[in-house]
Design goal:
With 57 residues, the protein is mostly beta strands. The chain has strands at residues 10-11, 15-19, 22-26, 31-32, 38-39, 42-43. It is 0% helix and 32% strand. The mean pLDDT is 88.
């Protein structure tokens, strides 16, 4: 049996940012939470902006 400890969990939705003079969508601005609800589809309130590279289906 594997046992582990969660040190930190950050959750957030994608937002618009300006990077290199371009508007992009990113979920990089996630915030640490003390508790979260995990469903089959992921954490409630969490999002991935670029599913091609970050856990997309």
């Amino acid at each position: 049996m594997l046992v582990g400890k969660v040190i930190a969990l950050s959750i957030g939705k994608e937002k618009s940012f300006t990077w290199k003079e371009r508007n992009i969508q990113s979920a990089i601005g996630k915030e640490k939470v003390n508790e979260a609800i995990l469903t089959f589809d992921g954490f409630v309130g969490d999002g991935v902006a670029n599913t091609a590279f970050h856990g997309g289906v």
